[in-house]
TrEMBL record:
Belongs to the LDH/MDH superfamily. MDH type 1 family. It comes from the Eukaryota. GO terms for biological process: malate metabolic process; tricarboxylic acid cycle. This is Malate dehydrogenase. One of its GO terms (cellular component) is mitochondrion. GO terms for molecular function: L-malate dehydrogenase (NAD+) activity. It comes from Semnornis frantzii. SUPFAM superfamilies: LDH C-terminal domain-like, NAD(P)-binding Rossmann-fold domains. NAD(+) binds at N39, I62, S63, N64, M173. Residues 7-90 form the Lactate/malate dehydrogenase N-terminal domain.
Length: 260
């Protein structure tokens, strides 16, 4: 193992994949954005070291607020002249895992057999579960759909409140983070058809970063599979997420530009 800033260069040399979960967790009453000041500095410091010592590596960011820490990572890599948008991922997999679980519970299905794409960002109303694209196909009355969507969006806060000051989601985040990284490693080894949602540089909407299903491959993102066909309810959620997404992205970019 490696410890401390002085061993960081040695730790990162030759890495193919770097996963960054570092940072402080939320406490009751905090939003993910309240973590910004502490976690932004941690992410900027660690990704600067990555850009210098393993510029070709896949970078997977778990540290919140992901809606800002991914723009920070991108700007840091740009500063070092080694930016490749196909290799920088915001890990939003926990939203997908939660959506799969909640849908499975309501329909009496095995969560392992349920796949709900979750697009947008990784905070509150920027989390947009596409229940209409769920496999297997499921239907909910509108009031139940609205309630289910709200629970998926606020599931992280549910955990923070239940833990009453002892932190945020840990085991579920570890599972979700591992799932994303294992998928990425499989794709890097040449497995075909590996798809995961992730918050990345995107041209799918007017937001410069946006999570959608991605086909992963040897070089990171092989193809952005886009949003696909969605319902008016889902379209409205996408439209309503834009202002918050853009503000969080700008906040991250501004921070990175001034980070020494």
């Amino acid at each position: 193992g490696f410890m401390g800033p002085e061993q960081l260069p040695e730790c990162l040399k030759g890495c193919d994949v770097v996963v960054i979960p570092a940072g402080v967790p939320r406490k009751p009453g905090m939003t993910r954005d309240d973590l910004f000041n502490t976690n932004a500095s941690i992410v900027a410091t660690l990704t600067t070291a990555c850009a210098k010592h393993c510029p070709e590596a896949m970078i997977c960011i778990i540290s919140n607020p992901v809606n800002s820490t991914i723009p920070i990572t991108s700007e840091v890599f740009k500063k070092q002249g080694v930016y490749n948008p196909k290799k920088i991922f915001g890990v939003t997999t926990l939203d997908i895992v939660r959506a799969n679980t909640f849908v499975a519970e309501l329909k009496g299905l095995d969560p392992a057999q349920v796949t709900v794409p979750v697009i947008g960002g990784h905070a509150g109303k920027t989390i947009i579960p596409l229940i209409s694209q769920c496999t297997p196909k499921v239907d909910f009355p509108q009031d139940q759909l609205a309630k289910l969507t709200g629970r998926i969006q606020e599931a992280g806060t549910e955990v923070v409140q239940a833990k009453a000051g002892a932190g945020s989601a840990t085991l579920s985040m570890a599972y979700a983070g591992a799932r994303f990284v294992f998928s990425l490693l499989e794709a890097m080894k040449g497995k075909q058809g590996v798809v995961e949602c992730s918050f990345v540089k995107s041209e799918e909407t007017e937001s410069p970063y946006f999570s959608t299903p991605l086909l992963l491959g040897k070089n990171g993102i092989e193809k952005n599979l886009g949003i696909g066909k969605i319902t008016p309810f889902e379209e409205k959620m996408v439209a309503e997420a834009m202002a918050e997404l853009k503000a969080s992205i700008k906040k991250g970019e501004d921070f990175a530009k001034n980070f020494k």
